[in-house]
Amino acid sequence: MKFFSSLGIAVKALLSHKTRTFLASLGVLIGIGSVIVMVAIGKGSQKEVMDVIAGMGENLITVNAGEMKRRGGRLRLTGNVTTLKIRDANRILEEIGEVERAAPFEEKRMTAKFGNNSAETTLAGSTADFSVIRGYSLQSGEYFSERDAKTANRVAIIGMTAVKNLFGEEDPLGQVVKVHFIPFKIIGVFEPKGVDTNGLDQDDLLLIPISTYMRRIVNQTHITRIFVQASSRKNIAKASEKIRELLRETHKLTDDRNDDFTLISQLDLEEMKLETTELFTKLIVGVAAISLLVGGIGILAVMLISVKERTREIGIRRAVGATRRDIICQFLYESLIIGFLGGGLGIVLGVGLTLGLTHWGHWTLILDPNSIWIASWPVPDSEFCLACSPLSKPPNSTPWKPLPSNSPGNSAPYPGAERTDIDLLFKN
Question: Do 227 and 133 contact (CB within 8 A), yes or no?
């Protein structure tokens, strides 16, 4: 019965100060809502990154000439290494059983022209396997033929960004584009792919046979990259190791010499990007958690002020028989009610914002049930501590002693009090 009595008194006290109760719970509301939304943003970012990596190619291994280092948030080639050849790609495909496909690759930013229109685009040379390895699909037209590769024909497959820049709404199939004064006939159009993990537009592309590129564009024998597709995801690590051994042998690298190439697998990209997104998620969740902490401190301040202001109330309750424990329980219940009120509304706010931004804002947010638990579980514990801390040292007051029976106003619990009615507890 004492529980319900103390709880009823706590509720009545909070209702008598609605504005203060709302402001105290507002901090917890915003904090929990922020944590839920921020975790959803972090999870959504991770999904987007993993989708981009998956879109770059299935079971992909990239062999880069020289050393690749991250500069300006992107992986870039350092130095000019000329040891990687087309024959290396052929050997990888022929001699390593864990490899399904291998495509040499070379690219350069160049200006393409069609009629009066011109635009800078990425002119790349590779084989027909490039499209399969990197997950490019044809929207229309056809791929290179073996004859195109052998005879270094001037044919090209174009990406959608390059189509918009050069042709607008016009159909590019069968049209001729000039690059470096060399005409190329468009025989195919790629489906849109979007950006890669480095933020580069994969649709801003003009792909020509590698033989044509090497003979007519750059006049060189070395390449900067080989795209390799492992036979399965579980074989990526094994294939990478065998590729390393094969290339070191082919390039005649002794044990005391470092690799003159860099291997980056799909697994490596996933690990690097997950580390980045997890750090980002922890950062934004930490910022949101600060607001939750501020909300808890706000409740502490409210309870401190409340105890100081309600010395008279505490005295009245002690006079009518309430114990120290009853007083502590009352304020504890008040703080818990504030905490659970703010927590409940915060969960509703966080879930609502997440679903709303996903549905109407077209954001990629993933609601994580664990985030609701993580954001909510500190509330009861923190509220317990915050509620008890103001009461650890009760306010100074002179203990009440009953007046003599013949004294005027002997019905008053202490000098100055006119009523013992419980309603006095909430008229501060």
Answer: yes
Give the list of residues 6+ apart from residue 235 with CB closer than 8 angstroms, or none: 59, 98
Whole-number Å distance between alpha carbons of 196 and 180: 27
In this prediction, residue 378 carries a pLDDT of 52
Per residue in 66-125, pLDDT tens? 876 655 555 555 556 788 999 999 999 999 999 999 999 999 999 999 999 999 999 999
Instruction: Yes or no: say if 141 and 187 are a contact pair by the CB < 8 Å rule.
Output: yes
Longest dimension (CA), the chain: 124
Co-location of 285 and 413 in the same domain: yes
| 142 assigned to some structural domain | yes
Contacts of 275 (CB under 8 A, 6+ apart): none
- Strand ranges (E), 22-136: 60-65, 67-71, 74-78, 99-114, 117-126
- Which portions of the chain are predicted below pLDDT 50? 386-387, 394-403, 405, 407, 409-428
Per-residue confidence (pLDDT) for residue 8, from 0 to 100: 82
What total of structural domains would you count in the chain?
A: 2
Q: Are 264 and 64 in contact (CB under 8 A)?
A: yes
What are the tokens at 219? 């006049």
Which segments of 168-281 are extended strands (E)? Answer: 176-179, 182-190, 205-209, 225-230, 261-265
Residue 72 forms part of a structural domain: no
- Residue bearing tokens 């160049």: 110
Q: How many CB atoms lie within 10 A of CB 412?
A: 17
What is the torsional sign of CA 45, 46, 50, 51? negative
Same domain assignment for residues 293 and 350: yes
Q: Which residue has the tokens 């947010």?
A: 365
Same structural domain, 287 and 224: no
User: If DSSP codes are grouped into helix, strand and coil, which group holds residue 377?
Assistant: coil
Q: 406 is in which domain, residue-wise?
A: 2-51+272-426
